[in-house]
Predict the structure.
Amino acid sequence: MRPFLVLVALLFAVSPAFADLYQWTDQQGVVHITDSLEKVPQAYRGKVRVIKEGVKEAGPALETTTPPPLTTEPGAELYGDQTLEWWRQSFNRKTTDIDQLQSSINAKTEFMTLFESGRRVGQIYTPDQVARYNLYRSEMPEDLRRLSELREEYEELQRRATIAGVPREIREQ
């Protein structure tokens, strides 16, 4: 019985931990996101964008952006009505939007799971923790709807790129 009490005590001592996310773009234009600054290559640490933990700070990072308008250089090869660079940027942005939203959903789900499991064993939470739980719970349906929408948009972008003859390495990043 004693080991069980130790385990329960440890569960109470463990509180959810959230980390900031670090985003950078490498020389090939690929966007990377990690939860540890140590995982960012030294060459890119000066250009890291920090996505803070928390709803207010994370909100703008989840906004979607539209690709830049077509600016055709003389002699640039077109795929459909767009240049190869336009397609590359479109796929990068859509992938980044999906990854950021999925990370946010994962963090909220983890917090809510820990909160609910703690409540089942009698843990007492601060009003801030309860407010955060209620906020995340109310935001989750919209986040899941938006994630589904983004994935559909990505599939449509892939379909259009396939029809336009965009090379596979761009379409399947």
Remarks:
- Strands lie at 21-25, 31-34, 49-51, 78-79, 82-83.
- The longest strand covers residues 21-25.
